[in-house]
Amino acid sequence: MSADIIKGKELAHKLKEEMSKEVLFLKEQGLVPHLTVILIGDNPASKSYVNGKKKASGETGISSDVIEMGVSTSEKELLKKIQELNNDQSVHGILVQLPLPKHIDEQHVIEAISPAKDVDGFHPINIGRMITGKDTFLPCTPSGILTMLKSYDVTIEGKHAVIIGRSNIVGKPVGQLLLNENATVTYCHSKTTNLIDFTSKADILIVAVGRPNAIREEHIKEGAAVIDVGINRLEDGSLTGDVDFDAVFEKASYISPVPRGVGPMTITMLLQNTIKAAKGLSKSER
Ligand code: GUN
After folding, report:
1. How many domains is the chain built from?
2. 173-198 confidence digits (pLDDT tens)
3. How far apart are CA 189 and CA 232, in angstroms?
4. Which domain covers residue 85, as residue numbers?
5. Residue at 109 is within a domain
6. Which of 36, 56, 201, 240 is buried most deeply by CB count within 10 Å?
7. What is the reported pTM?
8. Is residue 38 a known part of a binding site?
């Protein structure tokens, strides 16, 4: 047996085409969805992610701007800028690229963004809504993963989903979303002993470890669906995930590649959230 490859990039392209049509329709009615990204400092990885977000917005007809602030920007200055954007009716989505310099408290920043403009889905109000299964902005990587599984008709209900990684951005929320879809969910992390005891029982395995080849053929249950969230840069400059793709490909029934897997879907979900924000689905929070 060999796996079906879950082609995130192709799926993202298809979804972006559909979104372009919706954006055109909104523009005809005088509504131009607008995303503002704040980038603090000059971390090259953050710069590259922000450029990707800007490019994808443009391709879909969503207007965007990037506010670059110096690495010595104070928390107070950043919070003031966020307040301005909260009050600006022409800005629908606000994203502050993480990580932030150490002197700025990330949680203060996340909580300063209006929940109605929180296209990252990181505000505690939106996290609460997600956990309770209410309509809200879902965090982008987890909702991208869910969209991939659903688009490839991977059964979630009643299945055992194992998540490796418990970050606030990926691991924790993706487990909640799978639970909302009636999966039985197990979280593994750096302190888990005998990881293989859990991964080998997973019908759906979500891998967000941050280490190349962390998950190999022996970790996998025959016929599992494996989603690789890892983005590791090798010495030769190429990108690779956390899963030994070639070996796992032979044993799994579905596998997502890196690159062209989860990454493009994350950005696509951000665009989806920006359109949702523009349409004001949670106007009461403005
Ligand atoms: N840094 C890495 N991933 C993310 C993300 O999804 N959103 C933001 N704002 N920063 C990030």
Report:
1. 2
2. 999 999 999 999 999 999 999 999 99
3. 18
4. 30-114
5. yes
6. 36
7. 0.96
8. no
